[in-house]
């Protein structure tokens, strides 16, 4: 399966970043509703408005492994550089995220967060989590 963000591979061996592997991929589509439960009444009487559209949040968990720690450093630097404070602009419209579920999907996203965990004494591996939000400029 192929997963890339802004041409950075997330699930393959790369000369630049070592071996990156995705361990889990979650796509969540949510309605932006406003709810008003009424006091002392059953929940079937809750007032719900669905006026605010939908959003898709994608959460990716994976790892990056290389005996050359400069490749892991390059992966971390590339991921953190995506969170620039100016991800959406007229020139780019956001980052391109390509994945195989559903087949051949290519969507525009912004990176909401990137976190990595380094285990002391294991210098050739990091675990990471990335949160993406689908959207267009």
Describe the structure.
The protein has 137 residues and is mainly beta. It has one domain. Helix content is 10%, strand content 49%. The chain has one helix at residues 69-82; strands spanning 4-5, 8-9, 13-14, 18-31, 34-36, 47-49, 54-65, 95-99, 105-118, 125-134. The longest helix has 14 residues, at 69-82. The protein is elongated. The two termini are 28 Å apart.
Tell me the span between the first and last alpha carbons: 28 Å
User: Domains counted in the coordinates: how many?
Assistant: 1
> What is the number of strand segments?
10
Detail the poorly predicted runs: none
Helix content: 10-25%
Principal-axis shape:
elongated
- Count every helix, treating DSSP H or I runs of 4 or more residues as helices: 1
Structural class: mainly beta
Give the H and E element order.
EEEEEEEHEEE
Fraction of residues in β-strands: over 45%
Biggest sheet features: 8 strands, antiparallel
Strand order of the largest sheet: 2-1-8-9-10-7-4-3
Give the overall pLDDT as a whole number: 87
What is the alpha-carbon Rg in Å? 19 Å
Q: Topology, pairings included?
A:
Layout: E1 4-5, E2 8-9, E3 13-14, E4 18-31, E5 34-36, E6 47-49, E7 54-65, H1 69-82, E8 95-99, E9 105-118, E10 125-134
Antiparallel strand pairs: 1-2, 1-8, 3-4, 4-7, 5-6, 7-10, 8-9, 9-10
Task: Provide tags for this entry.
single chain; 137 residues; mainly beta; eight-stranded antiparallel β-sheet; two-stranded antiparallel ribbon; 10 strands; 49% strand; elongated
């Amino acid at each position: 399966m192929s997963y890339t963000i802004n041409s950075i591979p997330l699930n393959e061996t790369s000369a630049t970043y070592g071996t990156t592997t995705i361990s889990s991929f979650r796509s969540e589509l949510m309605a932006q509703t406003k709810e008003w439960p009424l006091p002392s009444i059953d929940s079937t009487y809750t007032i719900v408005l669905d006026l605010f559209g939908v959003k898709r949040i994608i959460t990716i968990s994976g790892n990056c492994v290389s005996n050359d720690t400069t490749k892991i450093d390059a992966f971390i630097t590339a991921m953190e550089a995506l969170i620039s404070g100016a991800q959406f602009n007229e020139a780019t419209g956001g980052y391109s995220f390509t994945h195989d579920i559903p087949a051949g999907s290519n969507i525009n996203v912004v990176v909401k967060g990137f976190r990595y965990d380094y285990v002391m004494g294991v210098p050739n591996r990091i675990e990471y989590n990335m949160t993406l939000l689908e959207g267009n400029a």
